[in-house]
Automatic annotation (TrEMBL):
Gene: deoD
Family under the similarity heading: Belongs to the PNP/MTAP phosphorylase family.
InterPro entries referenced in this protein's UniProt entry, alphabetically: Nucleoside_phosphorylase_d, Nucleoside_phosphorylase_sf, PUNP, Purine_phosphorylase
Subunit record text: Homotrimer.
Keywords: Glycosyltransferase, Transferase
Role: The purine nucleoside phosphorylases catalyze the phosphorolytic breakdown of the N-glycosidic bond in the beta-(deoxy)ribonucleoside molecules, with the formation of the corresponding free purine bases and pentose-1-phosphate.
Classification via SUPFAM superfamilies: Purine and uridine phosphorylases (SSF53167)
CDD domains tied to this protein: PNP-EcPNPII_like
Protein source organism: Aliiroseovarius zhejiangensis
Domain Nucleoside phosphorylase: residue ranges: 23-264
Pathway the protein contributes to: Purine metabolism; purine nucleoside salvage
Name of this chain's protein: Purine nucleoside phosphorylase
Record's keyword annotation contains Metal-binding: no
A Pfam family: PNP_UDP_1
Length: 267
């Protein structure tokens, strides 16, 4: 663990208490309000030394530590994306901090475009695997042999089973699928979408995969979700834009919040 993460953990414990965190959550577009419901301490990212800033509208850049449904959580109200700074490892320090605070599980969320007509806007996809379409990797430059991270079980089977059972009980459609990471910030072309579909992806977005790689490197178990905000380019007549993403994200966010709350209640 880096000295920066150790120093940040001391800073966070001074502000939020020494009780270990159990679960970390990284909130994508449309889900920032969940951080407001945590009974705890809110720390703006710019008050955390060396912390990457999240400059994407629709994100709420602060770390909230406290109780949510009886579970001690660390909620990241936004993430730093590769397309903001050209750094695939932009979220390494936040995830190192999460590990240093005691967490063993990470729940990731994102907004994504669907390539399947049976997963339309407003629905949720449980990410079962991913395709690193960008070719980038947050562990490039890591000197230790730990960089050779096996990714066969990147998305934790037990966590997937738990969320699937909760969704069934709640009457929420939760379709498993494969997520492709595209670097952004421009959206994909129709030809790129055809290529990604041919490779076997079900949804595409501009985040999450680097965090999954980093989380597995750090020994964190991972579950991840896409809230579908649009059909991918060429699959519908809707105009794709960031404003459209922000407008559509809340449709799936309410269902995703219900799943996360039920999961945390189980702990």
């Amino acid at each position: 663990m880096s000295k920066n993460a150790e120093a940040l953990a001391r800073q966070v414990r001074d502000l939020a208490g020494a009780e270990p965190v159990e679960v970390g959550l990284v909130l994508g577009s449309g889900l920032g309000h969940l951080a407001e419901t945590v009974d705890g301490v809110s720390i703006p990212y710019d008050q955390l030394d060396g912390f990457p800033q999240a400059h994407v509208s629709g994100h709420n850049p602060k770390l909230v530590i406290g109780q949510l449904e009886g579970t001690r959580v660390a909620v990241f109200g936004g993430r730093s994306h590769y397309y903001e700074n050209g750094k695939a490892d932009a979220m390494r320090l936040p995830l190192e901090l999460l590990k240093e605070l005691g967490a063993d599980r990470l729940i990731l969320t994102n907004a994504a475009g669907s390539m399947r007509l049976d997963i339309p806007p407003g629905e949720l996809m449980l990410i079962s695997d991913h395709i690193n379409f960008s070719g980038l990797n947050p562990l490039i430059g890591e000197a230790s042999d730990e960089r050779f991270v096996p990714m066969g079980g990147a998305y934790d089977a037990d966590m997937q089973s738990a969320f699937s059972a909760i969704a069934k009980d709640e009457g929420i459609t939760l379709t498993p699928g494969i997520y492709a990471w595209y670097s952004g910030p421009s959206f994909e072309t129709p030809a790129e979408i055809r290529a990604i579909r041919t490779l076997g992806a079900d949804a595409v977005g501009m985040s999450t995969v680097p965090e999954v790689i980093l989380a597995r490197f750090l020994g964190l178990r991972v579950a991840a979700f896409s809230t579908i905000t649009n059909m991918a380019q060429g699959l519908s007549d809707e105009a794709i834009s960031h404003e459209h993403t922000k407008a559509m994200a809340p449709l799936g966010a309410e269902k995703l919040e219900k799943l996360v709350r039920r999961y945390l209640t189980r702990d």
